[in-house]
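Chain and conformation:
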Amino acid sequence: MGNRTVGEAPPLIGKRQSDLKKSFNLAVRSLLTTCSKQELSKALPNFTSAQQERLHQLSIQVITSLHGNIEDEFESLCLETQVGTALDTVEQLVEEQCLDPLFSDKTNVMDAVHHLSTAKKTEIQYLRGLLERAEEHNRLIRARVEPLKNKTQEVSGTTDVVGKLRGGILSYGEHKMSGF
């Protein structure tokens, strides 16, 4: 995605490769969505609205960054495994077969079922891996938010204690002053 040098023309990609990238990006976007401010407010009622706003902005930054990282990793993986070249070759072979009047359109149904089944199993494993990584990421975010919740509660408790001490000192001073 961001690996091209300045002035270098974008590589031409075939329809199958373009469809693959579009499908992947749609899948990633549907898996990784940020929660609304209202949902965050409901989940973190002890935080002030300013803190909730900051946490919401932080979650948006994290999700945006995660989107970019996943898309970059997918692009890198596609380049590394030469998926584009393979899809371009498939596209070319399909075009050639469509133009060849002698090509037999008969295929073994069981072979097609086996290949489709294998492809779907591979896709499921890949999507499970993405889901596990997203769940791990969510767990890490929750682990970061929990100490923030605790700090807010501690600060609230400390504020109450300071207020009581201040009141006690003031009343002690007034008592001392009235006694003289």
User: Anything to note?
Assistant: Confidence is low (pLDDT under 50) at residues 1-6. The two ends are 80 Å apart (CA to CA).
